[in-house]
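Input (Silicon transporter):
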Amino acid sequence: IFIAFVINMSGAPMGGAELWGLPKVIIDIFLVTGFAMISFTAQIGQLATQVNASHCMLDYINTYFAVFTFYVAMAVEFSGLMHVSYFIQMCVGWAAGKPIQSNEPPKTGGVLIFFWARVLISAAVLGFALAVTLEGLFTGNTTMWEGVPNAVAVILFFVLMSIVGMFEGMQIAFFAVAKLPKSERGKSKFAMKTCEALFRRDGHNL
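Output:
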C-alpha cells in the first residue's frame, strides 16, 4: 500500500499538464486521481510477483533484495501493525460458525498477552487512520471532482474499499484453489463456474 501511494505521488502530473491532447476528463480520471499509476503498480509490481510466488514459494526469494523485502515483511508482521486483521478473521469465523483452524498451538500466558496487545495497538492505528480519512472526506480535502457532495465522496470511499477488499480476498482464494485438485474445489454452482473460468486453457486465465 505504501509503495503504491509513493509511486502514485511520483507519477502524478503537474498542474495544468497535458498528455497527447486527451480531454481533461480523461486526464483527471486516469492521472489526477492516480488510477493509472495504481493500476500499473498493481498489475506489474504486485500481481505478477504474487503469481510467481504462489507457485515458487521460497524458491522465489533468490536475490538479496527479495530477502530484504521478506525480512521487512516479517518485521511489519512482528510489530503487530496489521494484527487487527486477525481479530476481524476471528469475528468472521465466529459469525460463520466455523472456528479458525491453525497448525499453531493455542496461545497462552505472555504470548497471548503480547498478541492481544498488538491487536489493540493495530485497532488504534486503524481507527486513527480512518478518522483522518473521514475528516478529509467530510471537509472536501481530497482529489474528488468538484461539485461532488462530500457525503457522496464518503459513500464512494466505503464502496470502493469494499470492492478492493473483495478483490483481495478473491485473489488469495484463487491462488489457494490453484493448488487443489479439481475434486476438492467445491460443489457450489458459482464456485464451479468461477473455477471453470479461471482454469480454462490450462490455467492461463488465472
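The chain has a mean pLDDT of 77.
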